[in-house]
Every structure is written in C-alpha cells, then in structure tokens.
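Suppose you are handed a protein chain with no further information: no name, no annotation, nothing but its sequence. What can you learn? This example shows the usual starting point.
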Amino acid sequence: MTGLGFFASQVLIAQFTTPPPKPIFPNDNPKPQPSPKTAASPPATQPASPAPSPSPSISPSPQASGYKARIVLDNGLNVREQPNAESSRIAGVDYDQQVTVLEESPDKEWQKIRTEPDGVVGWIKSGYTERLN
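A reasonable first move is to predict its three-dimensional structure. Written in structure tokens, the prediction is:
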C-alpha cells in the first residue's frame, strides 16, 4: 500500500513539474530539434566556427518617408533581417508599440519598419499594424 502511494505521488509530481512547451508565434521560424541519435554522433565535417551574430540596423537619422503605425497583435512580432520567415530575428516589437512603416514587400506579405525609440530597421509580417493619423 505504501509503495503504491509513493509511486502515485511520484507520477503526480512529475506531471506537475514538467514545464509547458515553448509557444510558437505566427512569424517564428521553428528550428528542428536534433534527435538524440544525431546529437551523440561526432560531426563529419570540419569544426564549426561561431557565426557572427547579426547586429540591428540603426538609421543614423529619422527618415521623412513612411507612416506611423502601432502593433495590434497581442503577442507582439519578431523583426527580421529580410522579408521572409527563414531570415534571422534581429529584434522584437510589443503589442501597442509605435513603429514607422517604411515600405512593403512586392508581394505585400511583409512590411519594413523602424522601431521607436531605438531605430532598429527590419521586416515584420503584414497585417499586424494599424495606421496612426
């Protein structure tokens, strides 16, 4: 009886202490997790050197083009280097944050923005901004 109670309590504790899965946002690029088999095997290629991390593009001075907008997605958005989901994330914008929309991609799927007040320039998925007057 005692052993069964101990076992049941261990199962319950394990269920309640396991962290929830990481949320995936609409503009995230999910990275495949390495399987345990490939993670344990030595790399077949030359050792990888650390890749330089991208630095945010900062405009030297405010530009006159574009229009003011605010972010309307509750979760916020990732700001990317290029107008595609595979591009590197360089920053993030929060809900209700003001930005300057500089241009749209030819397919109208992405908007190039400048964040305020730090001036990071990058791309966000279209449809999540509201133009301000």
